[in-house]
Amino acid sequence: MRCPTTRACFVSIRSFSSSNLLPALAGHEPNDLLNEVRLLSSRGQLHQALSLFYNSSPQLHSLQTYATLFHECARHGYLQQGLRLHHFMLAHFPSCTSDLFVTNHLINMYSKCGYLQYAHQLFDAMPKRNVVSWTALVSGYAQCGRSVESFRLFSDMLAERDCRPNDFAFTSVLSSCDYLCGKQLHALVLKMGLGASVYVTNSLITMYSKGYKVEEAWTLFKSLSCWSQVSWNSMIAGFQLAKLGMHAIGVFVKMHHEGIGFNRATLLSVFSSLCGSNGIDINLGLKFCFQVYCLSVKTGFISEVEVATAFMKAYSELGGDVSEFYHLFLETSCQDIIFWTSMITALAEPDPAKAFFLYRQLLQEGLTPDLYTFSIVLKACAGFVTEQHALAIHSQVIKAGFEDETVLRNALIHAYARCGSIALSKKVFEEMGCRDLVSWNSMLKAYGLHGKAKEALQLFPQMDLKPDTATFVALLSACSHSGMVEEGLRIFDSMFKDHGIIPQLDHYACMVDILGRAGRIVEAEELIRRMPMEPDSVVWSALLGSCRKHGETQLAKTAVSKLKQMEPENSLGYVQMSNIYSSGGRFNEAGTIRKEMDGSGVRKEPGLSWIEVGNQVHEFASGGRHHPQREAICTKLQGLIGQLKEIGYVPEISLAMHDIEEEHKQEQLFHHSEKMALVFAVMNEGKLHGGGNVIRIMKNIRICIDCHNFMKLASGFLQKEIIVRDSNRFHHFKDNICSCNDYW
Question: Name one GO biological process term (predicted).
Answer without folding.
Answer: RNA modification
